[in-house]
Amino acid sequence: MRREWLRFGGVVLVVVLGLMAFREYRLRREIEVRTENQYQRAFQEVVYHVDGLEQELGKASAAGSATQTAKAFADAWRHAESARSAIGQLPVGNVPLATTEDFIGQVAAFTYTLAQKGASGATVSEREWTILRDFRRQAKFAADELAGMGRAFAAGALRWTDFQRDTVAAAATRPDRTPARVPSNQVTKGFKMLEDGMTRFPSPDLEGVLPPPTKKLPQVPGPVVTADEAARVALDFVGPSVAAGRRARVVGRIRSDPEAYRIEIPAGGGRGTVWVDVSVKGGRVLWVMDETPIGPVTVSPAAAEQIAADFLASRGFANMRRISRQSYQGVAVIGFAYEQEGILVYPDHVVVRVALDTGRVDGFEGTNYQVFHRPRQYAPPAVTEDEARAAVNPRLDVTASRLAVIMDDFYRETLVYEFRGTVDGQRYLVYVNTNTGEEEKIKRVGPQGIETI
Amino acid sequence: MCAGLLLLVALVAAVWYAYPRSRPGSVRAWQGAPGPGGIAEPASWDLADPGQAYSYNYDLMARVISAEAEGEPYVGQVAVGAVILNRVQHPHFPKTIPGVIFEPDAFTAVSQGTIWFPPTSSSMRAAQDALAGWDPTGGALYYYNPAKATNWWITTRRFLVQIGSHIFFR
Questions:
Q1: What angle do CA A242, B49, A362 make, to 5 degrees?
Q2: What's the CA angle centered on A314, arms A309 and A317, to 5 degrees?
Q3: Nearest to B48 among A177, A179, A448 (CB)
Q4: Which helix (H) or strand (E) segment is A363 a member of?
Q5: Which of the residues A88, A149, A318, B126 could staple to B94 if both were Cys, CB 3.0 to 4.6 A apart?
Q6: Which ranges in A284-377 belong to alpha helices (H)?
Q7: Half-sphere exposure of residue A294: CA atoms within 13 angstroms, side-chain side
């Protein structure tokens, strides 16, 4: 009887374990199929949008009317952005795709620019037609390659989830730092063919047509300073209340834009570490961050504004006007821009962070100011303020206006009239070119802040 | 007889257990309670300035910072936020903060689900500082922790700076 019970117990155990394993298998498969479907969908969308991109670029080059040309450019731009978004949903982070991604980014920027140009009535230049033709040929190649990959994947029953598992395993660091073997399969082969083909196309000359794809700030003007000089600059900038009894040491030289010394004022005397970046050229403070923990709030954000303004004045930043303010997690962050003879120069902006426990300045970010600030000369406006106001939407209830300087993606500065106004209870800043009388830009303003540029 | 009955009961129980059921409560528990201030705006935001539209994604950034840079110096937390924003600006990456964060296998914390734990308050400040313009990385697009397993190919990129235990690359 006892043995019989044991036998039954054993059978029950085996059956239960078997069913549990089967359940786990089913759940896992279900999740894998769902993930797989998402990847398949993303890839099919890349194929679809790159194909659509090629078609619309073709239509743009064939269209005769401004309306059809603008429509084709707008559609091409939409396809390019959608393709980029779909690529970002594929597990291809470890697959070299830089040329293809650069291409899609460039076409997106190019078609967006041309769609805008068409809207303003400008015609497409001869040089832009050449670029358009080259882009279309390259898009044709990419579309064909991707469609071919799609067919090969379907025939070979490729699974993206398997590919993902392989690449994650292959990318893991090996102790000797030698590259692991990248798995060779349909995905890597297909993308390698695409990427190799894309690099064979001559890259069109986009100088002046498109801004550089990655922002690269110029160096700060001035001579190169030594590490010791930079450390002194950092101690002077944070001031005696922070620097008293502490030393600054240069911990590195960073090849950023602009190039900088990283300076550490180590923690001590109840104060946290302070980090300062000082530009190698010019020896100017780019940013400061004080890690001293922040206690309970005792200072109002309004008082913090005055503290920040006083700090700037004492550090040699003259004529700074507040342009934004926000408060979060025990700090207030106030933005300022330089004002020259009544003209608000937005490119020369800084932000100052004030800890609201004791009302001390514990952060500064002024890279743009240090790079761009210089005495400027402005041609007097060719358009009067009244003429400029005529360009503004009559529904905008204008409450204030002033002269300002704004900067575009090419780092070109434009003297503009800034009109502040309200539409439907929402505040906006509208910028009108003082030379052409055209609306340059519209910014939305937060409930209490003013946006920086 | 008795044993046969037991076997039947066990079978029914096992089949009931083995059959997959959706449990909505478990998903909510997995995602964790929203952090201080929750998914919506933080309570301390008394001088609200939405800034660029993407600043609404600061909560998501704070979660990544919290999970990726736990135990790192504060500047290292801001640095992780800055890498996310540098990627948003770069053509090789998706154009939105959620796009960059949820790119497959881009962040270990996302792959492993640890971003769904409530973010620390310092990571929330770090996310906002990164959005306000601080970039302690000098424009980095990648980072890794040499003490943990990570990608070999990152070492082929341009070294920028080490902050805490993370090494930042462009």
A1: 5
A2: 70
A3: A448
A4: strand A360-365
A5: A88
A6: 301-314, 367-372
A7: 26
**Pairing, β A320-328 against β A285-290:** unpaired
B contacts of A289 (beta carbons < 8 Å):
74-75, 78, 129, 134, 136
> Nearest 5°: phi and psi at A261?
-90, 135
Domain boundaries, chain B: 51-169
Mutate to test the interface with B, among A78, A103, A178, A326 (most CBs of B within 10 A): A326
Exposed, middle or buried: residue A286 (CB in 10 Å: 0-12, 13-18, 19+)?
A: buried
Q: Are B125 and B44 contacting, i.e. CB atoms less than 8 angstroms apart?
A: no
CB contact under 8 A, B134 and A102: no
Q: Which of B22, B23, B47 to mutate to test the interface with A (most CBs of A within 10 A)?
A: B47
**Mutation target vs A (from B16, B44, B92; most A CBs, 10 A cutoff):** B92
What's the first-to-final CA gap in chain A, in angstroms? 86
State the pTM of this model: 0.87
Least CB–CB distance from B89: residue in A12, A104, A215: A215
**Inter-axis angle of helices A186-200 and A126-155, nearest 10:** 160
Q: Which of A81, A69, A85 is nearest to A106 (CA)?
A: A81
**pLDDT digit string (tens) for chain A, length 453 residues:** 788 899 999 999 999 999 999 999 999 999 999 999 999 999 999 999 999 999 999 999 998 888 899 999 999 999 999 999 999 999 988 788 889 999 999 999 999 999 988 777 777 889 999 999 999 999 999 999 999 999 888 887 778 888 888 777 776 655 455 555 566 777 888 898 999 999 999 888 888 888 887 778 999 999 999 999 999 999 999 999 898 889 999 999 999 989 999 999 999 888 999 999 999 999 999 999 999 999 999 999 889 999 999 999 999 999 999 988 888 889 999 999 999 999 999 999 999 999 999 999 999 999 999 999 999 999 899 999 999 999 899 999 999 999 999 998 889 999 999 999 999 988 889 999 999 999 998 988 765 454 433
CA-CA distance, A40 to A30, in Å (whole number)?
A: 15
Q: What's the gap in Å between the CA of A109 and the closest CA on chain B? A: 10
The amino acid at A34: R
Contact A324 B49 (CB under 8 A): yes
Q: CB within 8 A of A201, min separation 6: which ones?
A: A134, A137, A138, A141
Least CB–CB distance from A15: residue in B14, B90, B133: B14
| Burial (CB count <10 Å: 0-12, 13-18, 19+), residue A123 | exposed
**Residues of chain B positioned with their CB less than 8 A from the CB of A91:** 104-105
Question: What is the ipTM, given to two decimal places?
Answer: 0.91
State the CB neighbour count (10 A cutoff) for residue B2: 8
Q: Tell me the residue type at A107.
A: V
Give the CATH number of domain B51-169: 1.10.10.2520
Q: Which residue of A has its CA nearest to B52?
A: A451
pLDDT of residue A185: 76
Chain B nearest CA to A278, separation (Å): 12
Residue from the list A4, A172, A351 with its beta carbon closest to the beta carbon of B132 = A351
